[in-house]
Design goal:
Layout (H helix, E strand, L loop, with lengths): L1 E3 L5 E3 L22 H24 L8 H4 L37 H4 L17 H10 L1 E2 L6 E2 L10 H8 L4 E6 L1 H15 L14 H6 L19 H7 L13 E5 L7 H10 L9 E6 L8 H18 L15 E2 L2 E2 H9 L8 E4 L13 H4 L1 H17 L3 E3 L2 H4 L12 H17 L6
Parallel strand pairs: 5-6, 5-7, 7-10, 10-11
Antiparallel strand pairs: 1-2, 3-4, 8-9
Helix pairs in contact: 4-15, 6-15, 10-11
Length: 439
Amino acid sequence: MTYFSEKHETTSSSPGVSPPRWTLAPKMSSWSVTPRRIILFILAVALVYSLNALLLVSKPHKPQRPLYLTQTLPYNSTILAHAAFQPPEALPHRQSDMVDTFASYKYRNTCNISSLDLHSPFAPLCTDRKSLLTAMSSGGRIGHDAPYMPRDCDMRWFSTEEICEILGRFEKVIILGDSMMRHIIGSLNVLIRKDLGYGAVTDWNFSPEERQDCFCNYQFNVKACSVQGIFKTGDVVKNDPESLACPANTIDVIIEQMIRFPIPSDELDRLRGLLPAKKPTRPYAFIFGHGLWNDLDLQATLDWLDILLDTMIQQAPWLASPNQPSKGLTRSRGKTTVAAKRERSKQGSGFWPRLFLTPNAAGKEKPDEWLVSQGNKALMIFEEAVRDEVKRKGVEHLGTWNMSIQSNKFDGVHLDLRGNLIKAMMVLNWLNMLEVENF
């Protein structure tokens, strides 16, 4: 019996014996690359990629801090003998500290501000929130309007991409306070819009006169430009989304101006409207600032803070006790339930990040009638007293007097663009250190 092959003419084959393997044609010999198959392959890859992206979006992403905050990264340090400050660590995350992060910002050359003019980096970097807040509160400058430096350990100067990532870890960042706090959200908008000229103001509806009066440093002129300030990032998304450097719908920063005590009921209602009764997928962070409107009256400021904290716990009990629905205000053993929950929050049962900023130093333009009640001596005493008192309430504190005593001020009260950008970066450093993975 013979077996015929096109490739090999004839070969003998015994009954029941398979022909040699080399005589068989490969099974894939009929497969060939065609344009149709290439297109099908590309479509299959695209479908797999799209399904993967859809799953990532539908599944809430748990916020995480960067590795350099959760792990020890080894590096070869360079110690300069007899140097007052050591050079920054040669690690990737410190790269933005050593370059001008404003280089690509709008109006960089016109406004003539470099990030290196605002902060001078050094080693070591602060490794925890307590040391960070102490360092930033007690730092200073070597000369008037010189770059700011924390004391003992350094803070980061983040790139815009890093700032977007930090703010994106939070469902909402809520700022509560006066015009000084309004300037912090204004500076944050400068950073996330990459615009030194008009980043802090609503330039999308400006008249020619406003574009001239509220440019660069004058964005923080409280007399001419306070009404034009941006009060929430949602307004930027609505009116000028192309100016936002952060990915769409990833950040939410808002200020509620609350300057008086007692606090008007409509202001408390607005605060309640910002807080969900059910625990969100990402944490909230709260930043407070108060004092000058009550002539640095310590008790008035503490009462103001207590009202806000109680309102938050009443509306959103999950802040202090995870997975607990709102049940309103009741009394228990002489204390309201909300007050008891606030007491428990000091023990760390929930995730409720809170930071209190005390007012910056006064300048030489401060009106004489305010020098006793709001002068630098009164401001220093107020800062130290608030630091100690808010700690008892489970609230962290950031002092700004040392940072600002050698900086320019518009009217003896408010810092200019440079000083407010430093304030905003200090707040971002605090946000960056929060253990969001524990939420």
